[in-house]
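Input (structure):
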């Protein structure tokens, strides 16, 4: 018997409503509705147009209902750290900031000076980034105290949209674990950090594990969309948590995952958090995964750099699609110009090609001149950063990594996949592209009783998708390039 589920899958660039149909141990996916996930300028701030996002998701629900498809449940997943304030009878008190808004720089520095890295990391186990929810909340307390005082609390993006669909105000653990105010060992909000930063306890919603059934779709949404008899589930509401759940790996411990998209999230799945002085020094993170697992990973900049270059070229009058950029990169000179993708200048928007040119001049390298040279340099540098990060993971966990499962939109770049194999010397297994939507849907299937656990979920993925394998070429030029890359990273 076929069962249908909906994944409302939100990324930094776009959102989709995906229909998943499960029958005889296999999943088929259909994209129902896709829309751009845009930001808006409000004064000097950068915000998400969250009500437009909600409206677009409802359009997707209406399209499914119009086809008469009986949907068992739906769930929203999104990026982490960003959130919405609501309450006092109002579903929205202010348009939510985006994590790229610079308002958190000062609170971040102040938090490290006052409470300190050791205390924050011992409580949260999370990688330090100025964009984390903790520093956003500090900014709100300082700049908008009335907003905080008059709200019922905050909800991260996917939790907020699940609230609009169900009327249930809760925080799902995988998404809460991205805030740096969540204790992954106790699987609870950190009372110590809440107190240390003077945050109101009342602002923190109740926590629920991944795969919690919240309840039926609200009457108003059901009536508006025509989607009847549908429940709302909090799956792995963090997009990377859902993507990692959908990695088609076996039960061995010889693999790492790489969720490749705007960000590159690279790590391993552990049974428990790994919080010690070494992981603090290496700035790794411990985030919640399905079934109480820990996603031990490093969050590094990904295809954002190329996305920004593409936007800047488009503003200048030339539009390149990613397939054409990859073709031009394949024809460009190998390992000509390397950058450090982790350099802070590349994390913010604004004339990315010029930032790369400046970096090349500062490090005494040839300045890229064509889109192919820019693209190749970005992809090669990302692959070399993958190698550096995997070496750290092996040292910190004691594991030997032989395979890299690359999932997400970035897995469509066969050139980047081959570079990753060449740079790391490991086999790369690429796919599924729609890992986040698949993980979202199959966790719903577990909540529905159609699948039993994470192992069966991954077996279902393996039966349902095609994975492409990339083997290292053994080209010695990558070894000398890695030595150059490490010098560039060190700023020498």
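Output (sequence):
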């Amino acid at each position: 018997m076929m069962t249908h589920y909906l994944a409302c899958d939100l990324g930094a660039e776009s959102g989709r409503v995906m229909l998943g149909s499960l029958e005889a141990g296999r999943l088929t996916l259909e994209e129902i509705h896709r829309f751009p996930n845009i930001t808006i300028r409000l004064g000097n701030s950068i915000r998400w147009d969250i009500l437009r996002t909600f409206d677009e998701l409802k359009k997707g629900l209406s399209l499914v209902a119009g086809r008469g498809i009986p949907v068992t449940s739906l769930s929203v997943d999104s990026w982490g750290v960003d959130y919405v304030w609501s309450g006092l009878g109002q579903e929205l008190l202010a348009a939510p900031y985006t994590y790229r808004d610079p308002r958190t720089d000062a609170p971040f520095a102040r938090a490290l000076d006052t409470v300190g890295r050791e205390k924050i990391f011992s409580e949260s186990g999370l990688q330090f980034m100025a964009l984390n929810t903790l520093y956003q909340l500090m900014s709100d307390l300082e700049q908008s105290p009335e907003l905080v005082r008059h709200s019922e609390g905050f909800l991260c993006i996917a939790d907020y949209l699940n609230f609009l669909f169900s009327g249930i105000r809760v925080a799902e653990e995988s998404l809460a674990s991205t805030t740096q105010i969540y204790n992954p060992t106790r699987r609870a909000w950190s009372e110590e950090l809440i107190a240390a930063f003077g945050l109101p306890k009342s602002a923190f919603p109740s926590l629920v594990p991944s795969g919690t059934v919240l309840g039926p779709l609200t009457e108003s949404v059901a009536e508006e969309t025509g989607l009847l008899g549908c429940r709302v589930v909090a799956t792995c509401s963090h997009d990377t948590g859902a993507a990692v759940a959908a990695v088609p790996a076996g039960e061995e411990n010889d693999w790492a995952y790489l969720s490749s998209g705007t960000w590159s999230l690279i790590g391993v799945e552990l049974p428990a958090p790994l919080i010690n002085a070494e992981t603090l020094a290496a700035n790794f993170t411990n985030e919640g995964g399905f079934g109480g697992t820990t996603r031990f990973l490093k969050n590094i900049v990904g295809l954002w750099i190329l996305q920004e270059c593409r936007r800047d070229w488009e503003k200048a009058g030339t539009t390149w699609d990613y397939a054409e950029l990859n073709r031009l990169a394949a024809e460009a000179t190998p390992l000509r110009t390397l950058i450090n993708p982790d350099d802070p200048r590349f994390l913010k928007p604004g004339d990315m090609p010029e930032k790369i040119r400046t970096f090349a001049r500062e490090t005494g390298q040839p300045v890229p001149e064509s889109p192919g040279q820019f693209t190749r340099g970005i992809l090669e540098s990302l692959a070399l950063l993958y190698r550096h990060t995997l070496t750290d993971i092996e040292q910190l966990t004691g594991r030997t990594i032989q395979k890299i499962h690359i999932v997400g939109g970035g897995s469509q770049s066969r050139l980047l996949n081959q570079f990753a194999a060449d740079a790391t010397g490991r086999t790369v297994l690429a796919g599924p592209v729609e890992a986040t939507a698949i993980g979202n849907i199959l966790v719903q299937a577990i909540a529905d009783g159609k699948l039993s656990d994470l192992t069966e979920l991954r077996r279902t993925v393996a039966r349902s998708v095609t994975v492409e394998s990339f083997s290292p070429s053994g080209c010695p030029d990558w070894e000398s390039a890695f030595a150059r890359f490490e010098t560039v990273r060190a700023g020498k």
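Notes: The chain is about 40% helix and 20% strand. The first helix runs from residue 50 to 66.
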